[in-house]
Amino acid sequence: MRDLGPKAEDGVGVWWKTLGRNKKTLGLDWKSDEGRDILRKLVEDADVLIENFRPGVLERAGVGPDVLHDWNPDLVVLRVSGYGQDGPMRDLPAFGRAAEAMSGLAHLTGFPDGPPMHPGFPAADSTTGLMGALGIMIALFAREKGIARGQVVDIAVFEALLRLMDYPVPALTGANLSPRRNGLRQPMDFAPGGMFRTSDGVWLSVSAGSAETAQRLLRAVGGDALADDPRFATLGEMSRHMTVVFDAINDFVTQHTAKEVEAVFARHDAVASRVLSVEEIMTNEQIRHRGDIVSVDGEQTQVIGPVPHLSATPGQLRWLGRPPSADSQSILRDLGFNDKRIAALCEAGLVRLEGGRAL
Q: Which of 47, 96, 140, 241 could pair with 124 in a Cys bridge, judged by C-beta atoms 3.0 to 4.6 Å apart?
């Protein structure tokens, strides 16, 4: 992960710049006897340990959850793997793309007559991180309340995306509807909307999520005649005639500029959002106002800031992702190792300093 993608001016990968922010890095041979002792010192004073090896790797190395909890009974252990710690697929290799396929996300992305598609960003990796953080917070809260001490949080990467499949599973099991790719339209045509291109070439995402907002949308693009059409009296009725609705929206949008559409929609309190490029994200007034693009002193690379925004303890970026082993020396010093001992560990190949340099 540290090596994926283009590099920033200091040689560090730009993806790692954001994923490794506020993290310190230690190069440690944790499978050696001395490395294991250092790992134990770190664990004894830790609240959380996160690992993403294949199931069984920690156990074979003699540092599985039982051992970790023997060192620190209050430790929360987050285990991230492709398919989970158990089950017939637990030992198989996996990456985020495999999870996007297995979760059903790729199956639902694209056009009806086209192939399944991956999303345009690493959805599985990012969502797994969020779900893992949520699991950690739940476990820490349970520990704080005395409900449990340390425990294992087990998340499969595919499960993080499967959890987002909120509507397809009940649609199939409760209504006998099999979700399919729907192109520019809303999933399963449950509400009017989709992607539409204006006369001046701007793509807009148009959407409605209730009968009331759908009526406002119809009135914006077709006046009373469209909004009062009995075929569109309810969302259920509307879904059976969604091609007519989609075409009406498309006809209106394609005949007007983006600013004209936005003005009409604003008057009717209907929803239309411009599809922003990354370059446009960087200059968007609302995004800038919220402070969502963040710079760190001494860094050319900008990243997305902490979300959500907390009123009393807002998140803060102290540094972006550093090179591997950048903090080995300071971490070991904090554990009580003097420079002579650190040099000996480096000489033995048990500890690595940044760039492989000697102490």
A: 96
